[in-house]
Amino acid sequence: MTSVQLDDQVLVQETLFVRTLTLNRPRQLNTLSLEMISRLSELFQAYEDDTNAKLIILKGRGRAFCAGGDLAAMHRHFLEGNLKYGENIVQKILNLTYLIATHSKPQVSIMNGIAMGAGVCISVHGKFRVATENSIFAMPENALGLFPDVGHFLSRLPGFFGEYLGLTGTRLDGAEMLACGLATHFVPSAKLSLLEKALISRAASATSSCDLAFISAIIDEYFLQQPALNEKSALHKMDVIDKCFSRPTVEDILSALEKEVTTRDANRAGDEWLASTIQSLKKASPMSLKICLRSIREGRVQAMDECLVREYRIACHVMRGQISKDFREGCRAILWDKDQKPKWKPSSLDLITEHMVDQCFSRLDGDEELKLPQRCNLPVFANAKL
Q1: pTM metric for this prediction
Q2: I want to staple 252 with a disulfide (CB 3.0 to 4.6 A). Which of 34, 162, 194, 247 is the partner?
Q3: What pLDDT score does 207 carry?
Q4: Strand partners, 12
Q5: Which residues contact residue 143 at a Cβ distance below 8 angstroms, ignoring those fewer than 6 apart?
Q6: Quick check: 66 and 138 in contact, CB under 8 A?
Q7: What would you report as the CA-atom Rg of the chain, rounded to the nearest whole angstrom?
Q8: DSSP-assigned states of every residue in 48-98
């Protein structure tokens, strides 16, 4: 077994057939720095051509798997006048996501702890996604004036649960991740080290690097029972979620939710979940909500590469702040000054025109468009992991 220095931001352990990558910024909740993204891209590209690499394990050190991209660093560069830094980070994250989603080697993502934003993107596109009792999933970007990028997977969740998660930024635990398909397995955290040892020791028995049934059978040995959903889980509200979040606009969704409140109050059956859902929508950036809903809806009919190209366009427009400066304001209020009181402009949904949203989705000039890495001769499963 080989490994690198413990102060590296990505720890690498290599056995004969398994490559284990550990995100190593525990004090920053393993948020992805430019160095980490570049290193992960380099490693995944190398393992594509490594005939001995039959399996990749991706995990995080500390209490987080990965809390997303390093938005605080982006904001610091904004303040220093380096406006291209954020676009560069997003470009590299999207390329890494595509590389992972189309990789020919199976990946086991161990999502033990916080998994948010870009942290979800580098894990959920792996073939095997292991949640635990410590797992916390969320896509909270709308509250920061951004939008849930790399949200291709939100479009593939049951019913209109993707719209609900993307718009509200709701947190899910490990049991909920398994129930809605974000996770493929649930393993108690106390058994993770045994699981890893089993994968490493028995990988040699796999007939090929794509022996998915063999890998799944190993994980199944530690996945003993279906965890029970909390009685307050949003997954118990799928009838209301599908009814309200299927509406064509954010305004219609809010109206439908408020109508549910009125109906339930009239029946003396008030619902705390409804009030919380409405509050989350009203606190978020109106522009982000509009972008998010349209992005998820477009994702339903687009291939992975089309989604990533579209999301890069949106991210560039959002970061440049020519249509709305909500992202910079969100970073200031939530991450920098931490007054938790962002002043969104436009301040309400009715002030946002369709033309403004169209501009956020418009093509970039010439060479600015996202250029994804060329992929060829991929196994079928590499393009169908969700």
Answers
A1: 0.93
A2: 247
A3: 64
A4: 21
A5: 169, 280, 283, 284, 285, 330, 334
A6: no
A7: 21
A8: HT-TT--EEEEEESSSEEE--B-HHHHHHHHHTT-TTHHHHHHHHHHHHHH
